[in-house]
Amino acid sequence: MVDQARVQRGLEEVVALESRICFIDGKQGRLIYRGYDIRDLAAHATFEEVAHLLWYGRLPNARELSELRSRLGALRTLPDPLNRLLDSLPVDASPMDVLRTAVSALALYEPAETKPGASAIAGAERLTAALPTILGRFHRRRRGLPKPEPRPQLSHAAYLLYALLDRSATELEERALDVALILHADHELNASTFAARVTASTLSDLYSSVTSAIGALKGPLHGGANERAMELVEQIGTPDRAEAIVKEKLARHERIMGFGHRVYKVEDPRATILREWGRKIGESTGDLHYYEVLERIKEVVQREKNLFANLDLYSGSVYTPLGFPRDLFTPIFAVSRVSGWTAHILEEYEDLRLIRPSAQYIGPTDLPWVPVEKRT
Ligand code: COA
């Protein structure tokens, strides 16, 4: 039996495995992907370079980058049966449920790639390329728009915007989305990545592992927080209302989505970067009201609870002006995080050890058997 004192609720501070992919310094507010600071990556890299970094362990040279872009472009088309499935799903379904269903179904039509081991990296590229098309096909259908074409010449960020919204991105929009994708690409052993690694550690396949991860990401304490944070911004409406509404919520012991973090004890460095992109997008449209409301919310929560903003607080300030509805925020998170999930799954396969912790049993052990007819 496990010693009661050792139970770590929520596995807080438990070091479950060794990894070379991502490092978080929660005290200094630093985030590193394979040795590179997130601030440098957000300033200079593209999502495709970051995905290569996560999967292959190093930045690509010019030829490798161009080859990766071509492969991703060529992998955007979905098998016909999956298209038919997507076209038959209820239009009022949650896009996260659609994504989870579609990733699971895609495995049925690509059996070679679903096997763990040798083909996993091809599966990582395939899933990363396919996710915007899956979401685009579903979202356009519910909006009565034409089906997306693969447009292989577009970057991943520009294709994501085109696939979902049926329009081209401006240079600023493409870069803003590219940076958002870079910031969401990986985050050590967060709940969804852990879910992916638990599934992979049973020697299950890549698609099953990613399906597990999507289910974990959906929850409001994880990826779903970005949609809830935007709900609050819309409820508040104007900066002058923020103080009273946030204080009321705190007095009712409600959680303010987009604040607090299991690992960061200072502001999440990704939040700092995305806040600036929210401001830039606001300036370009001449509407800074999301930025201003968020600034007020941040001040109040920091002052009242000493809690710092996390990345999810700011997604909406970039995505909403671009035209993405709220229920696509968490799916867009998945479009990026699939690169990190798959990097972790690949790492799990390389150094496999079944993940199977123990529980402290606190129930009874010596109950006498009672026949069914004698039970009250
Ligand atoms: N709003 C209000 N209070 C919060 C809070 C928030 N967003 N986050 C934490 N707290 C409070 C808790 O109520 C608790 O207070 P108490 O000790 O008085 O009960 C204390 O801070 C510690 O919270 P706890 O839930 O134990 O910390 P955690 O490490 O388990 O939580 C999160 C991490 C992310 C789950 C938590 O901060 C949260 O729910 N945040 C909102 C959801 C979110 O933004 N998720 C995205 C994370 S990237």
Number of helices: 17
Order of helices and strands: EEEHHHHHHHHHHHHHHHHH
Sheet with the most strands?
3 strands, antiparallel
Q: Supply the helix-strand structural class.
A: mainly alpha
Hetero groups = coenzyme A
Overall body shape: globular
Helical residue percent band: 55-70%
Q: Span from first to last CA?
A: 32 Å
Tell me, rounded to a whole number, the average pLDDT.
94
Strand content: under 5%
Q: What is the spatial order of strands in the main beta sheet?
A: 1-2-3
Poorly predicted runs are none
Number of strands: 3
Radius of gyration based on Cα positions: 22 Å
Explain this structure:
The protein has 376 residues and is an all-alpha fold. The protein is built from 17 helices and three strands. The protein has a three-stranded antiparallel β-sheet. It starts with 21 loop residues before the first strand and ends in a 26-residue tail after the last helix. Bound molecules: coenzyme A. Coenzyme A binds next to loops.
Features:
single chain; 376 residues; mainly alpha; 3-stranded antiparallel β-sheet; 3 strands; 3% strand; globular; binds coenzyme A
Architecture blueprint of SSEs:
Elements: E1 22-25, E2 30-33, E3 36-37, H1 38-44, H2 47-56, H3 62-74, H4 80-88, H5 95-109, H6 111-114, H7 120-143, H8 156-165, H9 171-184, H10 191-200, H11 206-217, H12 225-236, H13 242-251, H14 269-285, H15 289-305, H16 315-322, H17 329-350
Antiparallel strand pairs: 1-2, 2-3
This protein binds coenzyme A (COA).
